[in-house]
Amino acid sequence: MNPLRLFTGRVALLGLLLIGGLLPTAHAQGNGPGDLLGQLEQDASKEAGPNQLVDATFKSTRLINGHTVQTPGEGTLVFLIEHRFGKLNDGAYALFGLDNAQIRLALEYGVTDRLEIGIGRSSLQKTLDGFAKYRLIRQSTGRGAMPVSVTLLGSAAVATLRYADGVDRTLGLRTAYTYQALVARKFSTDFSLQLMPTLVHRNLVMSEGEKNDIYALGFGGRYKITKRLSFNAEYYALLTPYARERFNNALALGVDIETGGHIFQLMVTNTSGMVERQFIAGDTNGNFFKGDIYFGFNVNRNFTLKQHRVK
Questions:
Q1: Is there a contact between 21 and 68 (Cβ–Cβ < 8 Å)?
Q2: Dist CA 78 CA 55 (whole Å)
Q3: Is residue 107 part of a domain?
Q4: 115: which residues sit within 8 A by CB, 6+ positions away?
Q5: Do 170 and 23 share a structural domain?
Q6: Which residues contact 58 (CB under 8 A, 6 or more apart)?
């Protein structure tokens, strides 16, 4: 048989089979091939879908010691109480750390759904701090989906403790600044991860060869156990050689308990500091795995000062 005729015959047969298979489907979906094309376009539209923002990556503006990508929303005021007891390995004489404590009181406010500002005061070194957070990018699904959320943080902390060592400690020299990019992804309704590249700049350093700038890379995550209970973890790895030799990396483990307008956060950590200047670049002298563990808690109370719409 002529090879060309054989090839042509097989192509024709394949065409008939395809047409025969498609016609019943087209008839069932509508009155003609145009309806089939419309169905395909509709299915594609369903797959793409409208753009939807992914919300509640974390339940609080704090993961444990550090910030999350979350902001409270426009018109919402957050009253935050942070408390850290002494070290567990202080023993029974100090009631395993309960005799000693550091506390921070803070107010945070959502200027818009993207912009948050806050002020706080810590008993540790009598530190005053202020910060601003801006949600630059928000994770979304659907057409043009964004895979992550990105929030930028800038803060300043001033130690107002009185010193008697004769060192020049003007207001400027007492100040330290922190800059962070918080990058998070909510992988499911139960599981979220966050990456926190960080720079802490201290205007005053006390040792020869010590650097004013300390770089760190933070990692954190949340896993929801029940509707109102989640497990959190947070770790800051120091990248500056001088800091790695003198400080320990900050590690914290905790749980979030949500009760209406309150969020209780219980944690164990190897630092008593509650602002970045302290727990990343200066106050983390304890070794978590040798018992230098501080038990603590955060209490978040939200007040809605005005109704707002998510934008």
A1: no
A2: 18
A3: yes
A4: 71, 132, 133, 134, 135
A5: no
A6: 68, 69, 70, 184, 192, 194, 222
Instruction: Read off the pLDDT of residues 169-179 as tens digits, 9 standing for 90 and up.
Output: 677 788 999 99
170 and 273 together in one domain: yes
Scanning the structure block, which residue is given the tokens 């040792």? 207
Measured N-to-C along each axis, helices 33-48 and 3-29 cross at an angle, to the nearest 10 degrees, of: 70
Instruction: Give the pLDDT confidence of 24-53 residue by residue, as tens digits.
Output: 433 344 444 445 445 434 444 444 566 888
Residue at 145 is within a domain: yes
Report long-range pairs for 222-228 (Cβ below 8 Å, ≥24 apart). Answer: 222/58, 222/59, 222/63, 222/191, 222/192, 222/256, 223/190, 223/191, 224/189, 224/190, 224/191, 228/257, 228/258, 228/259
Same domain, 284 and 220: yes
Domain range for residue 44?
3-48
Q: What is the pTM of this model?
A: 0.78
CA distances, 189 to each of 182, 185, 256, 270 (Å): 20, 11, 15, 30
